[in-house]
Write a structure and sequence with these properties.
With 129 residues, the protein is an alpha+beta fold. Strands 4-3-7 form a three-stranded mixed beta sheet, with no helix packed on it. The termini are far apart. The relative contact order is 0.14. The mean pLDDT is 86.
Length: 129
Amino acid sequence: MNANEILAAAGLKQTKQRISVMELMIKAKAPMTAENIYEAAENISLSTVYRIVEKLCEKGILNKNTIQDSDKFYYELSCNEHRHYAVCLGCGNVKYVDICPVHTPRINDFEVTGHKLEIYGYCRKCGGK
């Protein structure tokens, strides 16, 4: 689905700003903060970006997550799969990790219904500084 179709399916008006944010989120290779979206979008104020992402979260189009030890929210498209993240301790950059080391649906008498995994280290740019 493209940005227009996603917005229409959610019953949202297809404004230039919403379409722009949706196109950025569709192309994103990692979760984005509102500030990341603001910097990448053209002619949208930061307050408008916040209103748009909150509305998209309310409609279930975006997921809103936090990363441990961060006061920022990260947004990503909602999907039927869970995701894991690698977080750089130097620059704070967040990337998706393509593997899931947790495949156990049950741990002793505990039925696992979900999990969240964050891996910390340094990206190539920061190189362990």
